[in-house]
Write a structure and sequence with these properties.
The protein is built from 10 helices and 12 strands. The chain is 41% helix and 18% strand. The longest helix has 21 residues. The protein has a 4-stranded parallel beta sheet with strand order 1-12-10-11, sandwiched between helices. A 4-stranded parallel beta sheet has the order 3-2-4-5, with helices on both faces. A 4-stranded parallel beta sheet has the order 7-6-8-9, with helices on both faces. The chain starts with a strand and ends in a 5-residue tail after the last helix. It folds into 3 domains: 103 residues, 3-Layer(aba) Sandwich (Cobalt-precorrin-4 Transmethylase, domain 1); 81 residues, 3-Layer(aba) Sandwich (Rossmann fold), CATH 3.40.50.11270; 94 residues, 4-hydroxy-3-methylbut-2-enyl diphosphate reductase, catalytic domain (Cobalt-precorrin-4 Transmethylase, domain 1), CATH 3.40.1010.20. The radius of gyration is 21 Å and the shape is flat. The chain is an alpha/beta fold and 290 residues long. α7 runs parallel beside α9.
């Protein structure tokens, strides 16, 4: 059985950077806190916690403490509150996300209302909204576009959550063009996401089975799975080698493997090793998988 791993599988630049910043900070500081998880991956979170970084739900007295801003970014009010409470801030926000923050602030200053194409409950979207004073319109699908666009949005600027599905975004933008007289578009899907999505549009057509590795809390992994599943019904979303069901591989000649942007390299390696063991075992038995 041939196993092919996507070139883009695993950590993106922003995730690598955030983890590096967190671990370097932990090596020189003692009292470090973080609001939520640094990225959406349980193994990475365990590693960060083992380094001595404490996850908290709210900020308290911060004198003598460090607050790490995670890769998804945070609202301006989080920075302001942390500084007022005495925290020293270490900002690990992905630079691509910081660019989205810059865009929405600039466009609001220019008099545009902001539209965010993204998941309303996602931390990155909350952080983007938290850069501006007026409430943005948040849209995650064409059906979520208001039937009657508010008059205040007749002059609007669009930004996109960095991990959105590019095809969905195109459909939403085309519909917005019909409803908004003056529309400025910033398609801020990051390069790493674009590359992953390009690969996952071809891999399911070239392989019998596709495995997508990543946490169930990872938005970009979810989108990879959705795209793959739409092209190949033998697409499976797993988090670890133990999740592999040998029956999925029955009769498979080739297996494609990809992973979300928060999935560690060691997890990908262990999944590939497990696939090889299943394949070798099948050959040794010289009979179909059970």
């Amino acid at each position: 059985m041939k196993i092919t791993v996507a070139a883009s599988a695993g950590f993106c630049f922003g995730v690598k950077r955030a983890i590096r910043i967190a671990l370097e900070t932990a090596a020189r500081e003692d009292r470090i806190e973080m609001l939520g998880d640094i990225v959406h991956n349980e193994d990475v979170v365990k590693r960060i916690e083992a380094a001595g970084i404490r996850k908290v739900k709210r900020l308290t007295a911060g004198k003598g403490k460090v607050l790490i801003i995670r890769a998804h970014g945070a609202a301006e009010k989080v920075f302001e509150k942390a500084q007022a409470l005495g925290y020293r801030i270490v900002d690990a926000t992905c630079p691509m996300v910081k660019e989205i923050h810059r865009i929405v602030r600039k466009r609001e200053q220019q008099g545009y209302r902001c539209i965010i194409i993204g998941d309303p409950e996602h931390e990155e979207v909350h952080g983007i909204q938290g850069q501006i004073k007026r409430r943005a319109l948040i849209i995650d699908r064409v059906e979520a576009i208001p039937a009657h666009m508010p008059l205040s949005f007749s002059r609007a600027a669009v930004v996109v959550q960095s991990t959105q599905n590019s095809d969905t975004v195109k459909c939403i933008i085309e519909e917005l063009k019909k409803r908004i007289p003056e529309l400025v578009i910033h398609n801020t899907i990051c390069h790493a996401t674009r590359k992953r999505q390009q690969e996952i549009k071809t891999m399911p057509l070239k392989h019998d089975v596709i495995l997508i590795i990543g946490s169930r809390t990872s938005a970009n992994t979810k989108r990879l799975y959705e795209i793959s599943r739409s092209l190949n019904s033998r697409s499976y979303w797993i988090q670890k080698p133990a999740d592999i069901d040998p029956r999925w591989l029955r009769g498979a000649v080739s297996v494609g493997v990809t992973a979300g942007a928060s999935t560690p390299e060691e997890t990908i390696t262990s999944v590939v090793a497990a696939l090889k063991r299943v394949s070798d075992g099948a050959e040794d038995r010289e009979c179909p998988l059970p």
